[in-house]
């Protein structure tokens, strides 16, 4: 008996076997197995949704990651966030919110294959590991699931509740270091889906790639009271969706722009046309006269109102691999903010502050005014030269005017920086 228990047995029955004792020991063993299974489920399952919790999900994720790496298999991740979930709790109570979370978890289970991995990632967020699937396939799965969630009616008490969801999808590529990095990419795509109107699917490959900075520090004094309209680069060129590929390409080249917001006939923002979009379609002369709206791929445009705090835009650009956001007034594009735009604005502000600190004048206001005059003089000279060129030039007016406005844009930013610095000194 001692040897058997030491070898790993849970119990030992000696012969001759008493049927009553055997039955009692089997019942005791059954209870022990049930308790162990319950403890295992508590450790690996979310108590509300019944799906995997975050800890067990990452354990399974590591296994699937190693398998995909070993055999060169596709692997995708989808982050899911329920839209405006707080409204359900505020309107119907937390019990209704729990019912929605449970109902969506059951719906996601029916949409997933047996090989897929579903987990409640936190709050109203779910994460699905779509195995053996590349990004286009995972995006198609996400779109089908999004429609299923939109059409679902979740019973609660004597009523039914409905909800929509936003999806971010990313696939494992050679430059994705580990499972956490893949989740981070999907989360960036999810952030864009939420910022562009929610209830949609955004794939990470749809975002322009390139390195992006780490999260900004908690405090950025220069941007403390600044709005988007104060730091944006004005949208000096906003083509219509009816403009030809030839016209748009010519003006982007003349103005040295890599993208421009596209508007409809009423001036409302439709999307963004980029150099990559043009490179993908300029393969034959027959396409040069086609309207740009047909080939505009960037339609999930992240847009912010002019009155949005600039710090909020900085936080978004720091965590998402999006090259730029469009600033709008109503729904009309008025400007663009990129990381370069913010970097230039901050650089100008710091230079202004430094010049103010080095000044021996006891009247900082006068120093700011002098800085404004010094920044304004080159702009005045360029405007005078521009007016003289218009008087004698036979070239087309619009490209010439837009090109000159683009050159003046940097000078205008310098003047704006001096104005902002003056306002803060007076307020201080």
**What about the largest sheet?**
5 strands, mixed
Roughly what percent helix? 40-55%
Low-confidence stretches: 209-220, 359-364, 420-428
**SSE-based structural type:** alpha+beta
The CATH topology of the largest domain comes to Alpha-Beta Plaits
The radius of gyration computed from the alpha-carbon positions, rounded to a whole number of angstroms, is: 30 Å
- What is the level 1 CATH name of the largest domain? Alpha Beta
Overall pLDDT confidence:
80
Note down, in words, how this protein is organized:
The protein is an alpha+beta fold. The protein folds into three domains: 54-206, Alpha-Beta Plaits (2-Layer Sandwich), CATH 3.30.70; 234-336, CBS-domain (Roll), CATH 3.10.580; 343-427. 52% of the residues lie in helices and 15% in strands. The protein is built from 14 helices and 13 strands. The chain has helices at residues 2-6, 19-44, 54-71, 85-92, 94-111, 135-151, 179-195, 228-231, 245-255, 275-281, 310-319, 339-358, 364-392, 397-427; strands spanning 75-82, 117-122, 125-131, 154-156, 159-161, 165-171, 201-203, 233-234, 259-263, 269-274, 303-305, 324-329, 332-338. Strands 2-3-1-6-7 form a five-stranded mixed beta sheet, sandwiched between helices. A four-stranded mixed beta sheet has the order 8-13-12-11. The chain has a two-stranded antiparallel ribbon with strand order 4-5. Helix 4 packs across helix 5 (94-111). The chain is elongated, with a radius of gyration of 30 Å.
């Amino acid at each position: 008996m001692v040897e058997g228990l030491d070898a790993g047995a849970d119990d030992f029955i000696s012969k001759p076997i008493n049927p009553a004792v055997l039955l009692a020991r089997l019942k005791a063993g059954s209870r022990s197995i049930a308790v162990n299974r319950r403890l295992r489920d508590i450790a690996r399952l979310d108590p509300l949704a019944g799906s995997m919790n975050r800890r067990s999900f990452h354990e399974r994720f590591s296994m699937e990651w190693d398998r995909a790496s070993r055999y060169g298999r596709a692997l995708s991740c989808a982050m899911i966030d329920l839209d405006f979930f707080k409204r359900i709790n505020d309107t119907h109570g937390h019990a209704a919110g729990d019912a929605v979370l449970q109902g969506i978890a059951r719906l996601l289970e029916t949409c997933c294959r047996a090989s897929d991995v579903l987990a409640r990632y936190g709050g109203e967020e779910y994460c699905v590991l779509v195995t053996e699937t590349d990004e286009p396939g995972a995006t198609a799965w996400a779109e089908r699931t999004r429609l299923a969630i939109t059409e679902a009616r979740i019973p609660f008490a004597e009523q039914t509740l409905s909800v929509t969801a936003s999806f971010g999808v990313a696939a494992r590529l050679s430059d994705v270091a580990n499972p956490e990095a893949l989740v981070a990419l999907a989360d960036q795509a999810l952030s864009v889906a939420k910022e562009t109107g929610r209830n949609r699917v955004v794939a990470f490959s749809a975002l322009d790639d390139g390195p992006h900075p780490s999260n900004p520090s908690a405090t950025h004094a220069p941007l403390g009271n600044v709005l988007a309209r104060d730091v944006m680069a004005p949208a000096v060129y906003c083509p219509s969706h009816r403009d030809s590929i030839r016209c748009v390409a010519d003006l982007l080249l003349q103005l040295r722009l890599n993208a421009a917001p596209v508007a409809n006939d009423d001036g409302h923002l439709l999307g963004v046309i980029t150099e990559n979009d043009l490179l993908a379609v300029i393969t034959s002369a027959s396409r040069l006269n086609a309207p740009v709206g047909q080939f505009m791929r960037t339609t999930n445009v992240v847009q912010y109102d002019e009155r949005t705090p600039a710090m909020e835009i900085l936080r978004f650009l720091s965590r998402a691999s999006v090259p730029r956001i469009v600033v709008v007034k109503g729904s009309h594009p008025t400007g663009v903010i990129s990381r370069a735009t913010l970097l230039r604005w901050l650089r100008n502000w710091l230079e202004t502050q430094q010049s103010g600190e080095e000044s021996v004048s006891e009247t900082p206001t006068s120093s700011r005014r002098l800085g404004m005059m010094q920044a304004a003089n080159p702009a005045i000279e360029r405007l005078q030269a521009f007016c003289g060129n218009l008087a004698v030039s036979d070239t087309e007016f619009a490209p010439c005017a837009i090109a000159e406005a683009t050159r003046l844009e940097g000078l205008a930013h310098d003047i704006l920086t001096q104005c902002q610095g003056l306002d803060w000194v007076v307020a201080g």
